[in-house]
UniProtKB/TrEMBL annotation:
<protein>
    <submittedName>
        <fullName>Methyltransferase domain-containing protein</fullName>
    </submittedName>
</protein>
<dbReference type="Pfam" id="PF13649">
    <property type="entry name" value="Methyltransf_25"/>
</dbReference>
<dbReference type="InterPro" id="IPR029063">
    <property type="entry name" value="SAM-dependent_MTases_sf"/>
</dbReference>
<feature type="domain" description="Methyltransferase">
    <location>
        <begin position="38"/>
        <end position="119"/>
    </location>
</feature>
<keyword id="KW-0489">Methyltransferase</keyword>
<dbReference type="GO" id="GO:0032259">
    <property type="term" value="P:methylation"/>
</dbReference>
<keyword id="KW-0808">Transferase</keyword>
<dbReference type="InterPro" id="IPR041698">
    <property type="entry name" value="Methyltransf_25"/>
</dbReference>
<dbReference type="GO" id="GO:0008168">
    <property type="term" value="F:methyltransferase activity"/>
</dbReference>
Amino acid sequence: MIEDKERWNIRHVEKPMRKNVEPVVEKYIGLASGDKALDIACGIGRNTHFLAEKGFFVDAVDFSDYALSQVKDDEKINKIEADLDSYNLEKNAYDLIININYLSRRLLPQIKEALKPNGLLIFETFIVAHGDFNQPANPEYLLRTNELLHAFIGLDIIYYEERDEVNLRGEDTRVASLVARKRC
């Protein structure tokens, strides 16, 4: 576990990510209501800060203590240092959940349960790509085609797409994006 934390700390220092909000979050934030949000694997807080500026009280969860140290101290941000391999989400707690560039299949059913009725989910991460793409080496961190869509069956799907993209470090990759709402 300590090795994982050190690996993530080094990654955030040596390969810093861009600081702007993820475009899918910026595009669909207007569909969210309420004021309680969760940013899973928040990193240095680029999306967390945006959510707080939009009036949300944000639980910002990450394993990297270095990354969390880069998240602003703000009364609207609750920084939670936790190993997402064992962290559990509170049921019926969030009006908005975002999960960007991170995959824990263990958390997928918990994400659905953590949304309040009418809660919004914005999820985007890497999918298996063939050819000259940069992607995580471990297949556990890569979605299969349509896997994200199937994981959230039962939610009202607002937007879903699988596409080629340039990642945070300027490398070609493939991602899946999903925006969905939990109905009563």
